Amino acid sequence: MLILGIETSCDETGLALYDSERGLLAHALHSQIALHAEYGGVVPELASRDHVRKILPLLRGIFQQANVKPRSVDGVAYTRGPGLIGALLVGATIGRSLAWTWKVPAMGIHHMEGHLLAPMLESDPPDFPFVALLVSGGHSLLVRVDGIGRYQIIGESVDDAAGEAFDKTAKLLGLPYPGGPALAKLAEQGDPGRFRFPRPMTDRPGCDFSFSGLKTAAINTWRKLEPTSENRADVARAFEDAVVDTLVIKCRRALQATGLQRLVVAGGVGANRQLREQLRNLAAESGGAVYYPRLEFCTDNGAMIAYAGWRRLAAGQGENTAIEVTPRWPLDSLPPVD
Ligand code: KG4
Ligand code: ZN
């Protein structure tokens, strides 16, 4: 079964062709970072317009790369939500129109389901059940995953998402958009012993997160200092250490509470090198295993949407609806597959 995957939920246009026999045949991504950089964050209307400009050239590109004919596609998967409504509508409109033209089923995919299934594209995919830590710009979730669509949320952020906290703190430290990777890079030069910020909500039971206080702690410290690059790096380091430590503590708890040994980490913050290293240590200490998508599939991409689409379309779940998107969409409301 050959599936076309389309991702346009935010500031990346991602297209992919996934074949259930041969695996990933082609994928292409256009990032809008340069477009939004001068505004310090994503401007939704500019995002929608850029998806419109880029999606068809990228689409032609993946068919050439894979050397397959558009008519051999058996189904189309596009991100239906959560995300920016205008951006989502671009992918949904193209996806549904192509499916209608090709007379094949189409399926609107939950963006976070795409993220949590992304490690399935690797050569050593995890078996169910597992715990998934989903940390992106819009979400921080700990989910017990017993199968496709069998999701139980065991922890989530009560305020900012982890990526959002990285981005906002980076902006306040004067780093360019997108702040997360820039802050992480700067933190590598910081002194880990100089400042210590709280590990929010670790002093009470449960797996929920809160990151907005950490951002405030970082800013209050930074404002009292000379704005030197050394001071900036030290604050960045203390911030990153606090976020990573907190995520590791909550993952340990989630594994203990569920009795599971496999941990999947996905979403943009899953690209953070310190987080990856510490979670690998956590897995080693408990005799378990941690699974990541390759770095380029931690952040938004079309391949994860094509994969999720294949699993649902193969189970006969293609919808025959109008062009619809769901900008706010709880992950645990999806139907199971089997
Ligand atoms: O999953 P993603 O590409 O888009 C959303 O669905 O939100 O995640 C983007 C988020 C941004 O907040 C970005 O700053 C963060 O992931 N991010 C990182 C790193 N790389 C990306 N945060 C910390 N360290 C990184 N290396
Ligand atoms: Zn994402």
Automatic annotation (TrEMBL):
Cofactor(s) listed: Fe(2+)
Biological processes, Gene Ontology terms: tRNA threonylcarbamoyladenosine modification
UniProt xrefs under SUPFAM superfamilies: Actin-like ATPase domain
Cofactor binding note of this UniProt entry: Binds 1 Fe(2+) ion per subunit.
Catalyzed reactions: L-threonylcarbamoyladenylate + adenosine(37) in tRNA = N(6)-L-threonylcarbamoyladenosine(37) in tRNA + AMP + H(+)
Annotated Gene3D superfamilies: 3.30.420.40
Domain Gcp-like: 24-307
Protein name stated in the entry: tRNA N6-adenosine threonylcarbamoyltransferase
GO molecular function, one term: tRNA N(6)-L-threonylcarbamoyladenine synthase activity
Subcellular location: Cytoplasm
Lineage, top ranks: Bacteria, Pseudomonadati, Pseudomonadota, Gammaproteobacteria, Candidatus Competibacteraceae
EC assignment: 2.3.1.234
Chain positions recorded as Fe cation binding sites: 111, 115, 300
Residues that coordinate or bind substrate: 134-138, 167, 180, 272
Parts of the chain that traverse the membrane: none
Keywords attached to this entry: Acyltransferase, Cytoplasm, Iron, Metal-binding, Transferase, tRNA processing
Location (main, coarse): cytoplasm
Gene Ontology CC: one annotated term: cytoplasm
Function recorded in the entry: Required for the formation of a threonylcarbamoyl group on adenosine at position 37 (t(6)A37) in tRNAs that read codons beginning with adenine. Is involved in the transfer of the threonylcarbamoyl moiety of threonylcarbamoyl-AMP (TC-AMP) to the N6 group of A37, together with TsaE and TsaB. TsaD likely plays a direct catalytic role in this reaction.
CDD domains per the UniProt record, alphabetical: ASKHA_NBD_TsaD_bac
HAMAP family: TsaD
Family per similarity comment: Belongs to the KAE1 / TsaD family.
